[in-house]
Amino acid sequence: xxxxxxxxxxxxxxxxxxxxxxxxxxxxxxxxxxxxxxxxxxxxxxxxxxxxxxxxxxxxxxxxxxxxxxxxxxxxxxxxxxxxxxxxxxxxxxxxxxxxxxxxxxxxxxxxxxxxxxxxxxxxxxxxxxxxxxxxxxxxxxxxxxxxxxxxxxxxxxxxxxxxxxxxxxxxxxxxxxxxxxxxxxxxxxxxxxxxxxxxxxxxxxxxxxxxxxxxxxxxxxxxxxxxxxxxxxxxxxxxxxxxxxxxxxxxxxxxxxxxxxxxxxxxxxxxxxxxxxxxxxxxxxxxxxxxxxxxxxxxxxxxxxxxxxxxxxxxxxxxxxxxxxxxxxxxxxxxxxxxxxxxxxxxxxx
Length: 351
Prior knowledge:
39% of the residues lie in helices and 22% in strands. With 351 residues, it is an alpha/beta fold. It folds into three domains: 41-113, Winged helix-like DNA-binding domain superfamily/Winged helix DNA-binding domain (Arc Repressor Mutant, subunit A, Orthogonal Bundle), CATH 1.10.10.10; 131-204 and 310-346, 3-Layer(aba) Sandwich (D-Maltodextrin-Binding Protein, domain 2); 208-307, D-Maltodextrin-Binding Protein, domain 2. Helix 6 links the parallel strand 5 and strand 6. Helix 11 (285-291) runs parallel beside helix 13 (339-346). The protein starts with 10 loop residues before the first strand and ends in a 5-residue tail after the last helix.
């Protein structure tokens, strides 16, 4: 994960050094070699971090806040990077961020690569001392948040020196976070709208249930078809969530179009609407298994058709992978993240 305010004293040469002949191996005065670098620009890696933050936030003020520096400081460092490289990187209009120049896009590509390599180097050196350290940030789709501890807790037990940050994000935001090196990993769908330039590890298969209030006309059902569910007042996630797009497609595949009575980007809010109002919602079976079903609501498996999608662990496809992501994948590969395992792990069984 990028830390914009890092005090790293890592510098990268702006120009390639002149080639040194065989005779250089025998020179006693090393200053002769160092003289070959005189006059070259030195690039501060912090400037790359500022650029990455600016392109992520698309606003000088927000980028400065994210990097814990003042806006004038961030602007000055970006201009310093432009001066060092001798090119215009950022398009500005009335001091506002307008985007990157074509040259700026190439600089951003290399900046992400360089920053990622430096962070991976630090982790690798730390791992040589038999203890990973730093912070691991994971973006998780809302429907998988309840399962994230089944991955993060074993990792913490194995690597207590790593602080773990779990953030609720859409699959699109997870892709952006991996691209911008904001996330070390993500938990998201890997067979529906798959992410690009990532390595994947399947964790479990997601199926769906209709969640209704206990005592409603549907509460006694053992299963319910998607077609029958289409005629019920529903509270669903918003369309920017992939889970909602999957539900929309399931209805479309049987020739139905659903207009929900309520929309929200919070699963907690979905369940609250079901508990308090005459509406139902559709959730992943694994989510209701993990969170438990109290006596006020019931989860009914949706059938005809059987809709299933694979949730997996993802990380940027880097070679070599960072020590933290490598350790995370190694631990996750040994886990049994399935509905039955979830229930037995926390002692919860659906009623």
